[in-house]
Specification:
The chain is α+β, with helices and mostly antiparallel strands. It is 29% helix and 30% strand. The protein has a five-stranded antiparallel β-sheet. A two-stranded antiparallel sheet has the order 4-5. A two-stranded antiparallel ribbon has the order 8-9. A hairpin with a 5-residue loop joins strand 2 (49-55) and strand 3. The two termini are 30 Å apart. The mean pLDDT is 84.
C-alpha cells in the first residue's frame, strides 16, 4: 500500500477519516464504502482512493482513506473554518444509507510532503487490523484498481548489509527513511526499513 501510494503520489489530494455512529461489521463497512464511492464517481469519474479500517478501543470501526478529491478549504490544522465544516457536512450526506447519515467525517487537505506520513498511517492501520485474522479477513482495506498505476517491484534475497545495498543507488537521493514493525506471528515481529528514493537531477 505504501508503494501504491508513492507510485501515484500526484493523484492524492486529501486524507479523510470516517467514524461510524453505530457498530458495523467489516462486511457492512465494505458495502457502505462501495455505495459511497459509486456516488463520488458520478462527479469524479477518475476517482482514486486507498482505504483501510482501524478499530477503536471500543472495537468500533474507523475508516481512513487517501483520495484524489481536492478540498482547498480543508487545509487547517487547528480550529476548522466554516467552509471546512461545510465541506465535511456535504461529504457526510453522501456517506449515508437509506437516507441516514452513517457518522462523522474529518477531511484534511494534503500539503507537500504529507503523503509519505499518511501512507505510513495506512500501512500501520492495515498491519494492526490484520493481527490474528489474516486468513479469514477480506474487508480491512481496498483501493481503486482502475485509476491507480501499479508499482513495479523487484525482489531478491541477499546477505548484504543495508548500508552496502544503498551504496548501489548513488544516482538516487534518499528524501525519507523510516522503520515500522509488522506482527508476523504471536511470538515474532518483522522490522521493515523503508526509503523514498528519487533520481537525482543531472
Amino acid at each position: 500500500m505504501i508503494r501504491l501510494a508513492e507510485t501515484n503520489r500526484d493523484k492524492f489530494k486529501s486524507f479523510i477519516t470516517l467514524t461510524y455512529s453505530v457498530d458495523v461489521t467489516e462486511a457492512e463497512n465494505s458495502k457502505y464504502l462501495n455505495l459511497l464511492f459509486s456516488k463520488l464517481r458520478q462527479k469524479n469519474k477518475d476517482l482514486s482512493y486507498i482505504w483501510t479500517i482501524e478499530r477503536t478501543k471500543k472495537d468500533r470501526i474507523h475508516v481512513h482513506m487517501l483520495t484524489s478529491l481536492e478540498y482547498l478549504e480543508c487545509n487547517s490544522t487547528g480550529r476548522k473554518s466554516n467552509a471546512h465544516k461545510l465541506a465535511e457536512q456535504g461529504f457526510e450526506k453522501l456517506w449515508s444509507y437509506k437516507g441516514n447519515v452513517l457518522g462523522w467525517v474529518d477531511i484534511r487537505s494534503l500539503n507537500k510532503g504529507d503523503l509519505t506520513k499518511y501512507s505510513l498511517y495506512i500501512a500501520k492501520y492495515i498491519s494492526k487490523a490484520m493481527t490474528g485474522v489474516v486468513a479469514e479477513n477480506k474487508h480491512i482495506y481496498g483501493y481503486s484498481k482502475r485509476t491507480l498505476e501499479k508499482p513495479v517491484q523487484e525482489r531478491y534475497l541477499t546477505d548484504e548489509t543495508l548500508e552496502n545495498i544503498l551504496k548501489k543507488y548513488t544516482d538516487y537521493e534518499v528524501r525519507y527513511s523510516g522503520n515500522y514493525k509488522v506482527e508476523y506471528s504471536a511470538s515474532e515481529d518483522i522490522t521493515v526499513s523503508y526509503f523514498n528514493m528519487y533520481l537525482k537531477e543531472k
